[in-house]
Amino acid sequence: MENLLNQDNLLKADFEQFANDIYFAKHLRFKKYFDDSILEQFWKIQELANKKIGELAVERKWLTPNIVEELYDEGIRNNKYFGQLAIEKNLLTIEQVKEIIQEQRDKFVSIGELAVNFGLIRPEKLEEEYQLFKQNQESVQKLIEEKLSKIPIPHLKLILNTIILTLTRMLLMPPRLTTMIQPVEIIYPMDKLYLLSLNSNSFAINLYFNFDEKFVNQIFIYKFKQYKNKKLIKLRNSIPQEIANILTGVILKNLSNATNTDIYMSVPKQIINEHYDLQGQGEHYKFAIASAIGKIEIVIQAPKK
């Protein structure tokens, strides 16, 4: 039991321990301590300096590159952390995962550290800005919770958390729910728009995934870096469909487990219209989930009164 509790507390460190650094960087950019070009350079330095759990496991000769690649792919499909899968498959012990995560923390190069060493901000000013950033984040989270509490959609938090967690696997960068939470009557497709339906004995809802171009490109770039295959270039436009399919499957699985009921879903269908009118189809709410670069808007139908 103790090992299971330790494992639950530990595994979020795959990505989420570094989430604040990503969004603190955006805060510093907004405050004009550096511009987009400098931030891009900092992210390239981080990409070279900060290693993922799988890379560190390969360096220690605990896992092979092929196994690491398979675990990351399976993690996306099954909505599980890399460390969680490695432990479940007896490929790594929880002690080994702890050791790797501690190494990640000890060697992590942060945006703030880079900004100080590049002479862009003084250490004491950096601490002041970080405290301000934390206060802003707490205020944003409180506002989000207030908005969500007023929306009559069953299992709303489960659906949104599932989407965020699954996208984290794909991006290796945690996206976040924003305060853009509001009723909507018309959807204007961005890069691609998909509709799916979920039905059970207790509820029936429609969901829409509306991807913007930067978000899709971000996932494409990650996949291309992983596989470095020229054939992937021709598959860029199929990425939104792939993401929609994966999100649908994981939402279905998590809802079924949470409600202990059979749930039926449709295959995500692309909507080509210049705009999609929801009037007369019941109440719908829009939720914007943003990464450091792009966003996806989720539109969910509330149960009919």
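the 2nd protein, sequnce then structure:
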Amino acid sequence: MILPNLSIKKLLTENYTNNLTQVLPIDSVKNYLTYLLTGLLLSILASGCSKKVAGVDRSGVKATELNIANVDFEYLTASSKIRFQGEGQNVSATANIRIKKDSVIWISVTPGFGIEAARAIINRDSLSLVNRLEKEYRSYNFQELSKKYNFTISYDLLQAMLLGDMPRSIVNDDQVKQETNYFMVRQMEGPVVIDNFIDRQLLKVERVTMVEREENGAGRSRKNTLNLKYSDFKQLDEEILPFSNLVSLDYRQRGQKRRTQIDIKHKKVSIVNEALRFPFSVPDKYARR
């Protein structure tokens, strides 16, 4: 991974730290950005719309015949408001996001006062977080991150959560069920069952439920569940994008049930033609956690 060159000598001043603690309790300030960014990379996009419809099974529908309207672009930027709840934290911040589709996601977090407090970069095989408040950084490959949260996590899943796309491409073996107002596409990926609920008019994903089952030592099945919900769809050039998203992850860690929720509201999104920069570096004096 290429790590960027950042000057941070004057980034964290005494006044800035004092001001932040006035906005947040001291317990929230400590590890605030680590929780926020890690949760963002795992979570579920919120949808305010739910439809109560009577469903009818119909035969002869193939998943590959559904022309799902995934967002088509090479480079994208977004300015977003993010609220994180989980692991004893309830915090919010502004995030600037840059994406090169299917390649890299870059996130800069500003909790207030116009000063960057954290930065994250996500590649196909790993992610890294720099927390400027705590002067530390964290790096994970997706195998480590999946083990930490007891749920299969990948680059494609994180990108889909930000864009409102299906986390997994459609294949011939996928099952399709037609409902009154939506299609439901069921996919299997190892122990994970993925249900995608697709609006019939927009052909956009409104909700995704991913359930991962595993057997514990007693032979009993337990479930980890990730729910993605997308709403407030807006036209962006020729694309349609959800601007209000909620992510929910229910999982077990050290035998305890846990929940992480991230509410993402995009304020501005742009598809750009010119190549974007993704600067990221770790200062030498920062400790790895």
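The longest strand covers residues 256-272. The chain is about 15% helix and 45% strand.
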